[in-house]
Amino acid sequence: MKLLTFAKVFNILCYNVAIIVALGQLACCGKSCELLAFKEYLDFQHLKQAIVIYGGDEAKAYAAEMGRMNNSFLKFFNTNQLKENTDFYQLLRGNSYTVGILMSHASRNAVQDQLLVKASELFSFNNSISCYFDLYDIYKICYKCNDDRLSIEYKGNWSRENGLSVAERFRLPFVLKRNNFRNSTVNVAAAILNYSPSLNMTMSEYLNDNKRYLQNDFMQRKTYQLMTITQDVFNYSFNLKIEDSWGVYNNGTWTGVIGLINSNDAEFSLSPLRYMTERLHVVSYTPVVHVELVRFLLRHPKRTSIRNIFFEPLAVNVWWCVLALIITTGFLLGIHVYTEYHLYWKMKMLQPNETAATFYQLGPEHKVDFVVLTILETAFMQGPSPEQFHANSTRLLLTSVSVFAILLMQFYGGYIVGSLLSETPRTITNLDALYSSSMEIGMEDISYNYDIFNLTSNRVAQKMYKNRICKNGKRNIVTLEEGLQRIAKGSFALHVSLNRAYQLLTDMLTESQFCELQEITFNNPFVTAIGAAKTTPYLKYIKSAVLKFREAGIMKYNDLVWKLPKIDCAALAKDDVEVDLEHFAPVLVFLAFSIMISVWILMLEFLYKHVSVGLKNKSCFIDIYDIYKICQRCKNEKLTIEYKGNWSQTSVLKIEDRFRLPFALRRRNFNNSPVKVATAILDYSPSLNMTIPEYLNDNKHYLYNDFLQRKTYQLLTRTQEVYNYSFQLTIEKDWGSFSNGTWSGVLALLKNHDIEFSVNPLRYMSERFHILSYTPEVHVELVRFLLRHPKQRGIRNIFLEPLANTVWWSVLALIVITGIMLAIHVHAEFQIYWELKRLQPHESAATTLKQLVPEHNLDFIVLTTLEAVFMQGPTPEQFHSNSIRLLLTSVSVFALLLVQFYAAYIVSSLLSEPPRTITTLDALYNSSLEIGMEKARYNYDLFNGTTNRLVDNIFKYRICKNGKQNIVTLEQGVQRIARGGFALHVTLNRAYQLLEDKLSESQFCELQEIIFTNAFTTGIGMAKTTPYSIYLKSAILKFRETGILNYNDLAWKLAKIDCAALAKDDVEVDLEHFAPVLVILALGIVIAIWVFILEHLYKRVANRLRVNYEIVCKTMRKYLPK
């Protein structure tokens, strides 16, 4: 027997490896065989340096053979060159290289014994080697099974001529080639909460039933039926242990299913477990097997508003303004009527003749009821008659009220039409609406509900739990059956698991009632997976099976089996539609295809089980160990020794699979050593009433303070459990910058190697690459302009928008032309009257004709034209000429078509969402908004380093125009955003956290983001020489792969408001948009008052002049000769 000794020493923090190999002289093949085997081993171990120790008479033979190996790293030592006191580690050049050592048979003397003594402080082994080897795969598939037989399969061979040859299937992962557990029994556990013997079925029948009692233990039975498929895949059976809870941590121990897994009484669970931080150190998770939706569920009431439907088109303040204007115009009309009545009374006193009396009879009444009815007639577009009033001021007042009334009716009618054409909106679609409603609110009495409401950071949810759910003790904390019965009755919202709730509600509600159900969410769905013991060998098999189920569609099929079919609420108004065999055929085809595949796989498995390969008797066997020191800088650190594999004549070298992995994945126990790290804390203050560790680990309060640092710190704390080290944290008040030739802050600590890495993210910047290294990205920071978009941005009035400028000018021109033509027609008709008077000069005929002929004053022409345009008249009896009637009819048709176009625009503007115009940098620059930026270093870098001219103009002429007035802190900028009229360049994550408490949901949906630079991509900064680099990179990539990074992002992400649901709420015309109508009415009233004063003064002066003229004439008649 020849000597073969292996030893391996690793130093994890310096990446230095020393390997010692001693080979005896091989009689079978001579030096060539011996050196070729040595070269094969060096290549397999990726060794770049070797030391050859030989006797004095072997120098020439070794030199010739080694020359043919063409290895420039070989070192030759004669035994005479080595002394007894030669330092073993000095021979290996201070552990600074990877080294292989070959000892010849002739050098087996005191020098060799000296080396072996040094090596035997670790271990030593003896064996011999040949030049041809058959390789076999020898393993025991089930380490706890009573069957002690080994599985032996031929793997390949090695020879000097052909080298190493391995069968192709042995290059696959062992999960795919070792999946027959020989009908062994596996201990598993499940949490069954709702089983009862009164169900008239055994526990096995209950778990395998997917037709009855689906609301009981929904998740557990669904996942159990999925996992039973693995019994056929891996040929094992379950020894099921039933528990009455998933498990909680109480008094230092775990209970329930997790307790069995932690104590290794169960290999894995058949009940899905939520991903929870406190469970990660006792349970390993598979990929996701079930997603549980937990939300508020209610029957939405048909009408939730207290206000009458006829008041809904306009807001409350608009209705009050309308009422005030009606009262004001009524008061003004009373003054006009009273004045006009007394004016005609004075005319009667001055001219008590029959003509004046007749004219007086045409004057208006002066009673209060007449004034009230007249103003209401005008407001409701029902009158009054034009002949009732003769004062132009009164006519102008009533015309203004008519214009106001027609515009008001357009808005009102547009809303009613829109509400009839569209589906009745649902108003209770978010937490805020639910909290403000009159509905009772409750939750199912189950453990995860208490965790959700106690740990949530949503303030509305917190108030709802305290003030609505718990206000009556436990009256609203009910069982599933009680809660669903109250939902079926209506006016009750229950926080419950939707899968179980819908199963029960199908028997309680009709289809139309089922379509009234409304879901409201405020937390993410529960993502669950199979939990396995940390030391179980079945973990990779279960993970592989779950991924295979997902890939093959089995998991989706299982979801569909347990999913309640949705009711087509849109088709309820139609006839019932039955599913016939033609449409159901694809399901049957899919089932038949699945059965055929399962039969085919069963046949392959049956053949594979009965294939066996013999194994030659082994003659020699050598165990191989991995020896290393995990922490170079730790004091009193001991060597770590791990079993690596073995070598024998028959199988040559056999290394465990985990030793083929990178050392960062297999050497991850740092023995609780401290690691120096640092972070930049900028916003912490003792006034927050918490210590710095509490502040860093808190993800519920003050989220806008040090958002990046705290989020990343909480992610990296997970690596402490993964690698078993602890953080020695240094707090800095600055990220770091380069000034006067030196670096400051966290960057200075990294450059000077005072810390290993930072626990806050750092931006990827070219000037930092020469002082630190980066991990893969851990956070993406969005920096953008943020503003509340104004509702109306145009200068034009909203009532001018339905038609283009050219159309309005055309309408105005047509009105003017119509007025001129009407004046010509009236003048011609008036001349006809005078011709008749000349032919019939008696008074009665003239009086009759005057009453029939229209006035021919200018004001009469203008008012008559406006009446025709606004569809308020005139009376047909006023005109007798067919030409005038045809002209006015044409104007009426034109006005009717114009109003239809106008009303169509108003209706569509109410039914559609107003467009946003400030969405680009150019629109922002040209707007009237004030523009500012947060006082932060990255903002100065962005604006000073930009090549975008528009951005440069914004910085120079808009942000810096008032000195530092628009360069503000985050709190100041967010307050100005909330008030409106201000755009701030800021990090969105922190801004949204602050704005959540300052804006209502509808105001939150008005926020607009404008971007001009890419998002900041950040990673963990590490010192250039730190040995933790590969560990951190590996951990972050693993976090991303397993979803932990995404879960951390969701935990720190502000829940989005469903603005699409808010848009479905009733749209009211507010005072801002209704103001132009009020301005038109007020302007008309002012002009009417002004004309009334002028008219009153004119008539008083005219009457005095007329009286004086008559007195003068009478006096002159006395003195003139008769």
Automatic annotation (TrEMBL):
<feature type="domain" description="Ionotropic glutamate receptor C-terminal">
    <location>
        <begin position="805"/>
        <end position="1085"/>
    </location>
</feature>
<dbReference type="Pfam" id="PF00060">
    <property type="entry name" value="Lig_chan"/>
</dbReference>
<dbReference type="GO" id="GO:0005886">
    <property type="term" value="C:plasma membrane"/>
</dbReference>
<comment type="similarity">
    <text>Belongs to the glutamate-gated ion channel (TC 1.A.10.1) family.</text>
</comment>
<protein>
    <submittedName>
        <fullName>Uncharacterized protein</fullName>
    </submittedName>
</protein>
<feature type="domain" description="Ionotropic receptor 75a N-terminal">
    <location>
        <begin position="32"/>
        <end position="129"/>
    </location>
</feature>
<dbReference type="GO" id="GO:0050907">
    <property type="term" value="P:detection of chemical stimulus involved in sensory perception"/>
</dbReference>
<keyword id="KW-0675">Receptor</keyword>
<dbReference type="GO" id="GO:0015276">
    <property type="term" value="F:ligand-gated monoatomic ion channel activity"/>
</dbReference>
<feature type="domain" description="Ionotropic receptor 75a N-terminal">
    <location>
        <begin position="617"/>
        <end position="680"/>
    </location>
</feature>
<keyword id="KW-0325">Glycoprotein</keyword>
<dbReference type="Pfam" id="PF24576">
    <property type="entry name" value="IR75A_N"/>
</dbReference>
<dbReference type="InterPro" id="IPR057074">
    <property type="entry name" value="IR75A_N"/>
</dbReference>
<keyword id="KW-1133">Transmembrane helix</keyword>
<keyword id="KW-0812">Transmembrane</keyword>
<keyword id="KW-1003">Cell membrane</keyword>
<keyword id="KW-0472">Membrane</keyword>
<dbReference type="InterPro" id="IPR001320">
    <property type="entry name" value="Iontro_rcpt_C"/>
</dbReference>
<feature type="domain" description="Ionotropic receptor 75a N-terminal">
    <location>
        <begin position="133"/>
        <end position="189"/>
    </location>
</feature>
<dbReference type="InterPro" id="IPR052192">
    <property type="entry name" value="Insect_Ionotropic_Sensory_Rcpt"/>
</dbReference>
